[in-house]
């Protein structure tokens, strides 16, 4: 891997599935990144090295349902901080706060336990991919409802042509992504 950037190395292990889940969609499948232990380690280490630095270090990592749980939980473990799941509505057993957001067709709602973070906590918000940005924006709003500061959003893949990363940055959220699929 020494001759490749992390971006290029990881990109080689992301599978593109044409016409899924609908005709014309180029689905970026990250599951091959998780299947190969060396690739998985390179990916996790890329996040951990960034967030181990004092200026980027979170108090807690929040992961978005469902692939954000995989990355976020491992990053939290490596950093020695707590992990909180942001789930689809109806999955959390305790008192929750919720946020509804628009999808291409309809809407969706995500929830967070009301005691998941404390006011002033610096939170790293993690997902696998940024497309339209709706899920990450909803997660950011949820965490802010509880008084937390979302210091950065992190994802493996950015699909900038769908506008999500620009929308999130315009809302004031700093973003860190490992692979950019602009124009591909």
Counted by DSSP, the helix tally is 6
The overall pLDDT, averaged over residues, is: 95
What are the low-pLDDT stretches, counting only 5+ consecutive residues below 50?
none
- Looking at the overall shape, the CATH architecture of the domain at 56-180 is 3-Layer(aba) Sandwich
Enzyme class: transferase
Pathway: Purine metabolism; AMP biosynthesis via salvage pathway; AMP from adenine: step 1/1
Function: Catalyzes a salvage reaction resulting in the formation of AMP, that is energically less costly than de novo synthesis.
Keywords: Cytoplasm, Glycosyltransferase, Purine salvage, Transferase
Structure described in brief:
Homodimer. The chain is of the alpha/beta class and 184 residues long.
Describe the structure.
There is one protein chain. With 184 residues, the protein is α/β, with parallel strands linked by helices. It has a domain of 125 residues: Rossmann fold (3-Layer(aba) Sandwich), CATH 3.40.50. 32% of the residues lie in helices and 32% in strands. It is built from six helices and nine strands. The strands form two sheets. The chain has a seven-stranded mixed beta sheet, sandwiched between helices. Strands 1-2 form a two-stranded antiparallel sheet. A hairpin with a 4-residue loop joins strand 5 and strand 6. Helix 3 packs across helix 4. The longest helix has 16 residues. The radius of gyration is 16 Å and the shape is globular. The chain starts with 5 loop residues before the first helix and ends with a strand. The model has no long low-confidence stretch (mean pLDDT 95).
């Amino acid at each position: 891997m020494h001759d490749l950037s992390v971006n290029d190395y990881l990109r080689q292990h992301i599978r593109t599935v044409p016409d899924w889940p609908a005709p014309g969609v180029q689905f970026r499948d990250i599951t091959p990144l998780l299947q190969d232990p060396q690739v998985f380690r390179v990916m996790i280490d890329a996040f951990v090295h960034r967030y181990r630095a004092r200026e980027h270090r979170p108090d807690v990592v929040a992961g978005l349902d469902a692939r954000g749980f995989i990355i976020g939980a491992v990053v939290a473990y490596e950093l020695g901080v707590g992990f909180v799941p942001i789930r689809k509505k109806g999955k959390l057993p305790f008192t929750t706060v919720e946020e509804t957001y628009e999808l291409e067709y309809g809407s969706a709602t995500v929830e967070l336990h009301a005691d998941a973070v404390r006011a002033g906590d610096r939170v790293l918000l993690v997902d696998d991919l940024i497309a339209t940005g709706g899920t990450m924006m909803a997660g950011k709003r949820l965490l802010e409802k509880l008084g937390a500061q979302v210091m950065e959003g992190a994802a493996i893949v950015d699909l900038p042509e769908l506008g999500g990363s620009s929308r999130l940055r315009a809302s004031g959220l700093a973003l860190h992504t490992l692979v950019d699929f602009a124009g591909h």
